[in-house]
Description:
single chain, 115 residues, two-stranded antiparallel sheet, Transposase_6_like, Transposase IS5, IS402-like_dom
Amino acid sequence: MSDLYWLTDEQMARLRPYFPKSHGRPRVDDRRVLSGIIFVNRNGSRWCDAPKEYGPHKTLYNRWKRWGEIGVFLRMMEGLAAEGADPKTVMIDATYLKAHRTASSLRVKKGISGG
C-alpha cells in the first residue's frame, strides 16, 4: 500500500523528548505505532481498519488511549507549538490549524473540565 504515512527521522527526533519513559518491557516500535495512529486519525478510519503494516490495531488504539490519558499528545502539541515562530499557528501533518481570536476569551465552567 503506497499511501501509508510514516514519520521521518527528523519528525521522530522532535517528538522523542515527549515520549514517556518505558517501564518494564520495552515498547514496540514507536515510529510504526505513531505513524499508524496518525494514519487512522488523518483518514478518519476505524482502528480495526488500520493497515497491517502498522502492527496490531489493538496496539495502536491502546497507545493512543494510554498516551492521551496521561497527556503525552497534549505535551507534544504544546512543545511543538512553542518551537514555532508564530505561537498561534501550528502545522501538524500538513493540516493547517489556527485558533480563532475569540477563543482565548472563552472560559470553561469549573467542574465541567475537571478543574
